[in-house]
Amino acid sequence: MRWLVGWSSAAVGAAGIAGAAGSAGATGYDGETVQPVGSQLLWGDPDPLWAVGDWRPDEVRVVTADPQTRIAVLGICGASDEQLRVGLFAARGGALRHLTAWPGSYTAVVQVGRRITVCGDLAGARPVFHAPWAGGTAYATAALPLADLVEANLDFGHLAALLAAPDVPAALDDSTPYDGVKRVPPGHALILRAGSREVAGYEPVASLAVAAPAADPDRAVDAVRDALVEAVRTRLAAPRHVPGDGIDPGPVPGMGPAERRAARGMPVPGIGADLSGGPASGTLALLAAGLPGMPGTVLGHGTGAGERLLAVTFNDLAVGGQEAEVARAGALAANPRLHHVVVTGGEETLPYGVLDGPLTDEPGSSLIAAARHRARLAAGSADHFTGYGARQVLDAHPARLADLLMDRKRRHLVRPVAAMAKADGSVLVPARVYAAARRLARTPYRTGLEVLSERLLRRRFDEPGDGATDASLAVLTWAGPGPAARWLTGEALAEVSVRLQTSSQRSGVGPGQRPGDFRARAALARLAADVRVLEQAAEIRFQRLHTPFLDNQVVRACRALPEALRVQPGARASILRTVLEGAGVSELPGGWGAPTQAVAASAARAGLRVAADSLMSLFDTPLLAEAGLVEARVVRKAVRSAAAGEALPLDGLADLVSLELWLRRLLARRGTCWTGTPARQRAVPAGIAPQRGALGGAGAVVRRGWRGLRRVRGGGACGGLCGAGVWVGCLRRPVRVCGGVPAAPVRVGWGCA
């Protein structure tokens, strides 16, 4: 892992000097001097900043205008030093957007006097976290170091929201799995002034009062092409890095150089890319191989050393159905600028096959398939391109149909609805889709949150559908329950319901937000968070994963695409085909852009069937049950049913298993991210205190819960038979609080009970 960390002190004298000149630190609660382990100091007191981890020399740049005005950029950034200096002066005047408009993927930190500005990205792949500490505010690009610093406990409300409503920003809000550590939303910057903090957005907000000018589709696609080409070129222009020391330690009987490198777990030197056969990875591979003067140049032609781009295709032999995809990848790899490698995997690379792995900063559903991805990435290069995020930034979320109705563009609904009807084979599809889109267009945001809150309390969950139409209808709402919500306890669902109610009372979406655009941004943020977890869980030493589709400039260009263009069937493949044609690539194999989601679902079900016994052992005494989020017998029953082939939401089981694995790794860790006295504790010092076992007798207040609520056993209409009890407390609105099955929920009145 790599991150940056620093803090802003309330006063100049609040930070302490840690020994030698040029070093910095701060005095902790016990008087010890605190510094991050394995850090590189970028600037010192009173508001120090460190880079922690295995950063490459070219990934850390600091430009100084004067001793009190400087900028640090960490990551891949295409700006020159002069452009960084211009951006620094613009940020000194308050213009933050300039700091996010350079090609690449990076985090920018600006110091102007005692004012510190840390910019997050638009997608959420490079988030920023903050926490109050020692009279000021500490910030970092990872949550775990801050949790160690403040010795934070787990935020069970956030964990419940991750399972019950992972796609609803109102449920997650700005919280993290660690109590007291907050997240800066995508598209926002953290501004610190002498310890005080402020979160400000840097993107312009559209107005519903004045219609935006109609976007030209051709110009919009050209802008996507330019942004994508520039993102790839920026990474190719960076200095080359040889993994490790680059020296082969010597011959091993029966092993060649490539086999020795693979045994050491090190990537191939140079540039590489995924080549799954899909349009996203294929576009990046062809762009990276075809840029003149860059890796991919044919030996003996043009400039460069003749290095071919390494294209890696993963072929799962344990699951069928990938023949057409692998064939498309082979046709693309026929380009003489590409060197094609096919990595095969059996049952050992199925999801759930290997449940051991490193601790990640946050939980994510990709933890169950980390070994699968690691097998593919181990054959990759030191700099490896991946197509993650293309679907989220280019495709039309089904809720965008409501946006078209709000803009009075009904005729653009004809083709996507006709494609759904053809795929589903029902003449009733157009009427159902149109009615759902019309209902969403007329539903206020707060009403959508209240409907979701009601659904969670009454445990009303949609059965998993088989076709694309059912899936589209399920997300034609402002907010919907997550796939794992059906297995949560009534207590956990009540907590998420309270979070939704308080969020709807506190604020709504911005003035320029439409439901489709809102849902698309939330889906992108969730994907970016999962890619971040995947990068940490499947990390190969000395390797860098590049996701150009999550860059700020690419995201901006894709957001400017007209809605009418997005919703057309095959829009993503058509846009990427146009991008390649503009870059000089015109010959593409047949079936370009064919969907590949069914293969991932088949692999997940096969892996669940093979690993059913180990999953049953995992949930014998789960930590999730100790936290009061699930009941072990309910999850074990779901695992048995899914392994037997029943139609259950597999994504929900992946969320449950991943969160359980993450909790176990977190509690099993040793050490901390900070130096200090030997007695210093780390995040979650007390572990998980059993919640369900502390329940008392009927009619007694058993414990104070989240948000000041308290739980009373036996006070519901079910007479306490449900075991969920009643939640009461100070609320501005009546809330249904009994999660029991035997009787209808009880409504508590206004005020304090």
Short description:
This protein has 753 residues and is an alpha+beta fold.
Explain this structure.
The model is unreliable at about 15-25, about 300-305 and about 690-753 (pLDDT under 50). Helix 5 crosses helix 20 and helix 11 packs across helix 13. Helix 7 links the parallel strand 15 and strand 16 (about 310-315). The protein is of the alpha+beta class.
Mean pLDDT: 82
How would a crystallographer describe the biggest sheet? Answer: 6 strands, antiparallel
**Helix proportion of residues, in percent?**
25-40%
- Residue ranges: pLDDT <50 for 5 or more in a row? 13-23, 299-304, 692-753
Q: Beta-sheet strand percentage? A: 15-25%
From the alpha-carbon coordinates, what is the Rg to the nearest angstrom? 26 Å
List keywords for this structure.
disordered C terminus; 753 residues; single chain; 35% helix; globular; alpha+beta
Topology of helices and strands:
Elements: E1 3-8, E2 26-27, E3 33-34, E4 39-43, E5 49-52, E6 60-66, E7 69-77, H1 81-92, E8 104-112, E9 115-119, E10 129-133, E11 136-140, H2 143-150, H3 156-164, H4 169-172, E12 182-183, E13 188-193, E14 196-201, H5 217-236, H6 257-263, E15 268-274, H7 279-290, E16 309-316, H8 323-332, E17 338-345, H9 370-377, E18 381-385, H10 390-394, H11 400-406, H12 414-424, H13 429-441, H14 445-458, H15 468-474, H16 490-506, H17 515-537, E19 544-546, H18 552-559, H19 563-566, H20 571-582, H21 597-610, H22 612-618, H23 623-626, H24 632-643, H25 650-668, E20 701-704, E21 710-712, E22 726-728
Helix pairs in contact: 3-16, 5-18, 5-20, 7-20, 11-13, 11-17, 12-13, 14-16
